[in-house]
Amino acid sequence: MKLLEALHQILPNDRVTNNETVLDQHSSDESYHTPARPDVVVFPENTEEVSDIIKLAALYEVPVVSYGLGTSLEGSMIPYDKGIVMDYSLMNKVLEIRPDDFLVKVQPGVTRKQLEKELKSHGLFFSVDPGADATLGGMAATNASGTTSVKYGIMRDQVRDLEVVLADGTIIHTGGMAAKSSSGYHLNGLFVGSEGTLGCFTELTLQVHGIPEKTMAGRAAFIH
């Protein structure tokens, strides 16, 4: 396969594989949809490698599917047209925490619980909780929400900036550090929830919140 050979030119051998077991692991999510194997699975470590992979995919006219932890319930990450599955498990670093600005910058493979652990020592927490310990990249791609969304908002409300690799390998940013900008298109709103159809997320700048001093829970019982 020429594509496989080309991928080996830009990534080490241990980060490009068509091993059947690995293909099976990336053939499904947690939904009921029928699994389908990709042709190859790659494990990039940085934005430049993602861009190089996308450029090769465009050259060979094969699809690319982004893969976090496979916790999706919609079947959006199942590679029915085969091609390349891009696994972000090695892009899992919390790059910067800015407690005074209530901002954090992460790679897409960082999980929700991993981020919570990093933020706790700063008296901060990330508000979106979809239930599963999903990756932040996957949560942005699906515009995740959860039980805290009524108070804090959904995933789209927390994203200040995305670094995105487009279909031709171009790298763009969709926003910035500011909470609001009146110039240009609202690209954050466009890309968050796009399910990987517009580009691959390689960095996310997210709004975080102070840990509440008190929490309260209530329970309602309905007796027939």
TrEMBL record:
Cited InterPro entries: FAD-bd_PCMH, FAD-bd_PCMH-like_sf, FAD-bd_PCMH_sub2, Oxid_FAD_bind_N
Keywords: Flavoprotein, Oxidoreductase
Transmembrane domains' residue ranges: none
FAD-binding PCMH-type domain span: 34-211
UniProt xrefs under Pfam families: FAD_binding_4
SUPFAM superfamilies assigned: FAD-binding/transporter-associated domain-like (SSF56176)
Superkingdom, natural source: Bacteria
UniProt keyword annotation of Transmembrane present: no
Family: Belongs to the FAD-binding oxidoreductase/transferase type 4 family.
Protein name per UniProt: FAD-binding PCMH-type domain-containing protein
Organism classification: Bacteria, Bacillati, Bacillota, Bacilli, Bacillales
